[in-house]
Amino acid sequence: MAVHGDAEPWSLETASTTPLWIDRLEPPITPRAGVDGDLDVDVAIVGGGFSGLWTAYYLRQLEPSLRVAVLERHYCGFGASGRNGGWAVGELAGSVSDYAQRSSPTESRRLLRAAFDAVDEIGRVAAAEGIDCDYAKGGTIRLARTAPQAERQVADIAEARALGLTPDEIRLLDADEAAAQLNATDVRSGILLGPSAVVDPAKLARGLAAVAESAGAEIYEQSRARAIGGGAVQVGRSEVRAPLIVRATEAYTRDLRGLRRDILPVYSRMVATEPLPDELFDDIGLVNRPSFADDRRMVTYGQRTADNRIAFGATGVPYSFGSRIVPSAETHLGMHRRIWRVLVEMLPQLADARITHRWGGVLGIPRNWLPGVHFDPRTGQGVLGGYVGEGVAASNLAGRTMAELICERDTERTSLPWVGVTSRRWEPEPLRWLGVRVSRALLGVADDRELRSGKPDRLMSGIAKLLRGGH
């Protein structure tokens, strides 16, 4: 549907391009001091996002004698951890069948339930440590708004039941039940995933950094790592030496010497409304603050914030040639207009709501599209991540697991089938640029054709999956 002639009733150009979550922090961020001179520690963690901070937190819990240093290029939470949609969802980007191929269906189900547990673990730590991050476990509502989407939802639930998942964990909603959760246009059905929460991600990242630091971890911000090797991290002219080094750099891996093709940095962008009146939510729904999306192939994601905003994101033109990370691409006005139109097409009740913030960031995709945790005790090198945009809860599980691997603890997590996952590198240019662009374009075509025809478009989506290399 067209809304106001496809033009917003106010100017998006006036919206702040600082991420909502960071803009609202009190007090505002003052970066910690950087590394000044050479340093010797037991564990050096490169990256001050969720993965690095959770690893540091659990290391200090398990082995308080370890000297742990977190090295962050800007400030903790600067990257995807402070810019995402705040979905702590009990899912991994890799499917259950992908991990089952590496292990067994039973082990893959165990990994999925560990992801469920990570959602609760974030809430437990936040409560225990006094991290005020607006945590609310309201589940995730995914709407089917076309006949093919509804068809896929029936198949998804059948697969969930075959895996042994309960209706409390995931269930199919009819059109009325789904619309009661989220009163969007053209609702045909919905899936409600129980193990899912929303957070203010910047509050969580900054709170976690403070808690890890209070527990004895050393955090050095304004400390850009340039290379890892030889038992040391090169930070400017300084050297941080450590027998154990963890790389938790996600999309920014491309800036480490020799690693440009290890992780693909792609963009996602968000907008946020002004605080909305309670009576508007009487119509919209989202009573328990579930995160929400619809089931188009081009990803959408949203949440009702603690102060009654709608924060909503979507993927767009996702990749810059040469794996470049270009700040101006994060605030592309045309893409933010497209996201606003998607939001208002879904929720026309928001047509006159002012957009106060628009921003973007980069997430990391490994070539096999499988998140993983890898630690080699022979070299002392650890890597975690590759979350493909679903990292808020997964990073908790990954960081906790990495700490247990380093401390040689045999737990229910250290044998999960994502432990030891590695991926081959992405193709050289221009092949990876062409592959990503063509794949994304075909997914968009598939969505459009399904919307027009009301029939599943398996050809286009199959070609796109082939181009991206499957999962």
Notes on the protein architecture:
Helix 2 runs parallel beside helix 10 and helix 4 (105-129) packs across helix 10 (392-406). The chain has a 6-stranded mixed beta sheet, with helices on one face. A 4-stranded mixed beta sheet has the order 1-12-11-10, with no helix packed on it. 52% of the residues are buried. Strand 2, helix 2 (50-62) and strand 3 form a beta-alpha-beta unit. With 471 residues, it is of the alpha/beta class. The protein has 12 helices and 20 strands.
Largest sheet: 6 strands, mixed
Low-confidence stretches: 1-5, 466-471
Count the strands?
A: 20
Give the overall shape: globular
CA radius of gyration: 21 Å
The largest beta-sheet arranges its strands as: 9-3-2-13-20-19
Estimated helix fraction: 25-40%
Which keywords apply here?
21% strand; four-stranded mixed sheet; alpha/beta; 33% helix; six-stranded mixed sheet; 471 residues
Quick recap:
The chain is built from twelve helices and 20 strands.
Topology:
Layout: H1 20-23, E1 39-40, E2 43-46, H2 50-62, E3 68-71, E4 87-89, H3 96-102, H4 105-129, E5 140-144, H5 147-162, E6 170-174, H6 175-181, E7 189-193, E8 196-198, H7 201-214, E9 218-220, E10 225-229, E11 232-235, E12 238-241, E13 244-247, E14 264-273, H8 278-284, E15 291-294, E16 300-304, E17 310-315, H9 333-346, E18 355-365, E19 372-376, E20 381-385, H10 392-406, H11 431-453, H12 458-468
Parallel strand pairs: 1-12, 2-3, 2-13, 3-9, 5-15, 13-20
Antiparallel strand pairs: 4-8, 5-7, 6-7, 10-11, 11-12, 14-17, 14-18, 16-17, 19-20
Helix pairs in contact: 2-7, 2-10, 3-4, 4-10, 11-12
